[in-house]
Amino acid sequence: MIGFGAIGLEVAKRLSGDSDARLIQIMVRPGREEGVRGQVNGTIQVISSLEDVDPLPDFVLECASHQAVAEYGPYFLEKGIDFGVVSIGAFSDPDVYDRLAKSSRSGGAQLCILPGAVGGMDALSAARTEGLDDVTYISRKPPLSWTGTHAERSFDLESITQAVVIYEGTAREAAKLFPKNANVAATIALAGLGFDNTNVTLIADPNATGNIHQIEAKGAFGEMSVRIVGKPLPDNPKTSALTALSAIRAVKNRARHVRM
Q: Which CATH class is domain 121-230?
């Protein structure tokens, strides 16, 4: 596993003692090794370099950053090791996506894009086969949840008293302007019409009770609407609980004979 933030910690806790899916190594930034070793059981190696990866794993789960996707994805894929990605926003850079896709082909490995904080990606991807006409993603969060983002340049977030649209445009531009909120938009774009043809609306809403993700799609298949009101991890209010659960499911599915 690459990364040991809130998601990585949750994955490690949920896999502890699992007899089918075993976490053998965690790679972190240099200097973090000892701190992480104190939070996991002694059978898990904590490393900070690709040179220390031993033995080669069956599957690598990235839950670190966009940079980690670009830096480590090609290495493992070219060695024939399937690579699961949580930080999907990295693919808003077409060069990163193309490089990992090329590496997966040359290594005969799978690049696994996790759905993360949203649902319905299986249906959206299936609908794309017969043609999609329109895909729109609407994200609605409390105003202060947009603190530290591009929205602060145009809005006084603390003074917002009713729902305000802070961005409308394409998924690609949204990923550039709101990189910390890019993963969901990127996931929907990859499952559907792509970054330049997926519509994104971001809303600061003081009445929002959580992070609300809404997907609307139309096409030859008919119409679909998916709405998720996400809760954060208990130990980290900035991290979606469903994202962590999606990562855990991806790992456990590797060992299951029956997969859903």
A: alpha beta
What is the pLDDT, as a whole number, of residue 209? 86
For residue 95, is pLDDT > 90?
yes
Catalytic residue among 66, 150, 213, 257: 213
Tokens (6 digits) for 13 = 């806790």
Q: Is 213 a catalytic residue?
A: yes
Looking at the chain, the whole-number percentage of residues with pLDDT higher than 70 is 100
Question: Whole-angstrom Cα distance, residue 186 to residue 225?
Answer: 18
Q: How far apart are CA 116 and CA 96, in angstroms?
A: 19
What gap in Å lies between CA 65 and CA 245, rounded to an integer? Answer: 18
DSSP 119: -
Q: ∠120-173-171 over CA atoms, to 5°?
A: 10
Q: 142-197 pLDDT, tens per residue?
A: 999 899 999 999 999 999 999 999 999 999 999 889 988 889 999 999 999 999 99
Question: What is 6-116+241-255's CATH number, 3.30.70.240, 3.40.220.10, 3.40.50.720, 3.30.70.3300?
Answer: 3.40.50.720
Q: Which of 71, 79, 57, 55 is nearest to 1 (CA)?
A: 57
Query: Strand 25-27 relative to strand 45-47: parallel, antiparallel, unpaired?
Result: parallel
Over residues 100-106, mean pLDDT: 98
Rounded to an integer, what distance in angstroms lies between the CA atom of residue 218 and that of residue 172? 20
SS3 215: strand
Write the single-letter amino acid at 141. K
